[in-house]
Fold this sequence. Notes:
With 116 residues, the chain is mainly beta. 0% of the residues lie in helices and 40% in strands.
Amino acid sequence: MGKYKKVVEPVRVRLKKNDLVEVTTGKEQGKTGKVLKVFREKNQVLIEKVNMIKRHTRPSPTSGQGGIVEKEAPMFVCKVKLICPKCATGTRISMTQTGEGKKARVCLKCKELIDG
Length: 116
Ligand SMILES: [Zn+2]
């Protein structure tokens, strides 16, 4: 009882919008991009210029001529890792509490705070 103070959290999305991430598996492996959107309830993220899919659009007054539009498709967060802004390597993230009692993300490689 009370041996470990650290709270074990369920798997959750620790990525945020504008994070730089690297794809670690699949056909997009090695690609990097900026997180455009996070879908927390689905454990998915949308990454700029990664996992592009082609969408066919019909000609319409609003979209113009129609044709094929390339668009990002969401990826599971387990397939990407954050690129630490401090040490510039793909890393895993741990959570910590700052002096003010706020939660902050920590890079497991360089142990630097990622936020702020
Ligand atoms: Zn780091």
